[in-house]
Amino acid sequence: MQLADDPSWLTRAENLLLFGASGVGKSHLAAAVSRRMIEFGKRVKFCSALALVQQLQQAKLHLQLQLLLKKLDRFDLLVLDDLGYVKKTEAETSVLFELIAHRYERKSLLITANQPFSQWDTIFTDSMMTVAAVDRLVHHALIVEIDSESYRKSAATTRSTTATTAETVVQSKRS
In the Cβ-directed half-sphere of 128, how many Cα atoms lie within 13 Å? Predict the structure, then answer.
């Protein structure tokens, strides 16, 4: 709540890193923080990490990567949702690293990921790049680890229980 009520963390180019299993609300929190920053007049771009990485790759192929990185500088906050779904190819991880390095101490990133840092070798192609990316991200960051059950799983269980209860009531009324 403190981050949502005070946009000064963007002025300081701090990052917000949200970790947790699938379905615990990372993307929802990222969207809520993003919306609040927009209400403060900040410019925010919210995108899936995979989509942005593909866009960065295309720009690099056309020798336009630096131009795209500068265009992204217009945004006070750049949200990369679901970083763990980026494929581990040299082309993808190199542009992701370039983005992280480019924004370091200049502009804020909000990243959601299913994997903790200890598993980021599954994202980046080599351990030196992993260490360098993590080092830049955490230097000025708030790290939130969400340890909870999946909301989707919980909702499905509730629906299943409700349906079973309703079916039992219908069968009782027939008897």
Answer: 1
Backbone angles phi, psi at 156, to 5 degrees: -65, -40
Residues forming a β-bridge with 142: 16
Percentage of residues in the chain with pLDDT exceeding 90?
67
- Angle (CA) 26 2 15, round 5°: 55
E strands, the chain, are: 15-20, 44-48, 77-81, 108-113, 141-146
Q: Can you give the pTM of this predicted structure?
A: 0.84
Per-residue confidence band for 164, with pLDDT thresholds at 50, 70 and 90: low
Distance CA 86, CA 125 (A): 11
Of 1, 2, 4, residue with least CA distance to 33: 4
